[in-house]
Amino acid sequence: MTVGIDDIEAAYRRLQPVLKPTPIQRSATLSRMLEAEVLIKPENLQKTGSFKIRGAYNRVMALTAEQKRHGVVAASAGNHGQALSYAATAAGISATIVMPETAAIAKVEATRAYGQTVMLRGVNYQQARSAAEQLCADTGATFVDAYDDPFVIAGQGTVGLEIAREDADAVIVPVGGGGLIAGVAVAMAARSPRTAIIGAEAAGSPQLSASLRRGAPSAIDRPVDTIADGLATGRLGVLPFELIRARLHDVATVDDFEIGEAVLLMLERMKLLTEGAGAAALAAALKLKSQLKGRRVILLISGGNIDINLLDRIIGHGLVKAGRLYRVCVTLADRPAELSRLLALIGKLGANVRAIDHDRTQRGVAIGAALVELELETRGIDHIGSIRAELTRHGYKIEDED
Ligand SMILES: Cc1ncc(COP(=O)(O)O)c(C=O)c1O
């Protein structure tokens, strides 16, 4: 079983009724930052919030009439499940998406909202998958793998057809199980063979580099751990590996801090909401900056379904790193008006108080003193430096955590 350009073209024809155009855009900001010509392909704006609809819908539409009657099943707590639910509803067939009992309520609801059944089984992906396979054995439904399936890969490859028109020097593609990069690599090999294919993987789930090292599709022998849940498959697909091994130019492995920064950049500079996997190509481009300098590069922004609590944490980290959020602890004399004197100074220094905690009974705080913890909105690292200097000059003792 393999996938060729004809399969991808057939998928493209099938997908026409459901695909949303996600026009490739040049980013002046990212081009300046990377000293390259940077284009983005925003599949976070695709139907269901990711490119996954392409593979899922192509798989569903390629089923025989008999298979359609029995419906489809997937195991997924993420974008594949949502996409298959949407695709099955659009095609008028039934689907059951099996998710672990630990799946986020928002994802369960989103998948249900596309019109199909969600079944909660097991406490992790593997247990949900076993339950899904059992369901297929019992009902005759077709199991739809998220990446190790030729129709799914051909569907994902349709992004490659759209990208190939740009005649770029390189395209950076996020990699989980490898279905997306495999489809894109096949399309580009036929339509834009000079474009280098670069994979972006998460350091907490590095199955692509592990597979390349071993020369065979491999699984990670430790628990996966990354904020880019779309990339956290822990293993590379067999068919994706075969399709990419000779076509891959390079791989960049990016950690959660780099991914988080890329999510923030996309949000702040591009006004685009992306999930960790969705911003991984940008994180990889920042890492490969010297290699990409002066080149025309496309970043495949693959999805935007991020949990809002995670987004909140990413924003918090980003603000602290950029010096725009500063937590500081100072001791002051426990006397009337001391706190207002401190706050007046902070105000004069141009920082905005976001939260304040005043404690005089904590261990280690002298009788007659109070510990004040402030969370301040600041204007950057230099601003924090001048706040610290002024606090010290006015006699406040800064309690640094060490
Ligand atoms: C947003 C997003 N990007 C990238 C990927 C990786 O795709 P693949 O598993 O085909 O490599 C996924 C997979 O779920 C995803 O949801």
Can you walk me through this structure?
By secondary structure, the protein is an alpha/beta fold. It has 3 domains: 5-50 and 149-318, Rossmann fold (3-Layer(aba) Sandwich); 52-143, Rossmann fold, CATH 3.40.50.1100; 323-398, Alpha-Beta Plaits (2-Layer Sandwich), CATH 3.30.70. The protein is 46% helix and 19% strand. The chain has 17 helices and 14 strands. The protein has helices at 5-15, 28-34, 52-61, 65-70, 79-91, 105-113, 125-139, 150-164, 179-191, 207-214, 238-244, 256-270, 276-287, 289-292, 308-321, 338-348, 381-393, and strands at 25-26, 37-42, 72-75, 95-99, 117-120, 142-143, 170-174, 196-202, 248-254, 296-301, 325-333, 352-359, 369-377, 397-398. The chain has a 6-stranded mixed β-sheet with strand order 1-2-10-7-8-9, sandwiched between helices. The chain has a 4-stranded parallel β-sheet with strand order 5-4-3-6, sandwiched between helices. The longest helix has 15 residues, at 125-139. The radius of gyration is 25 Å and the shape is elongated. The termini are far apart. The model has no long low-confidence stretch (mean pLDDT 95). The structure holds pyridoxal-5'-phosphate (PLP). Pyridoxal-5'-phosphate binds at residues 50, 52, 78-80, 146-147, 174-181, 230-231, 233, 275, 277-278, 302-303. Pyridoxal-5'-phosphate is lined by residues 50, 52, 78-80, 146-147, 174-181, 230-231, 233, 275, 277-278, 302-303.
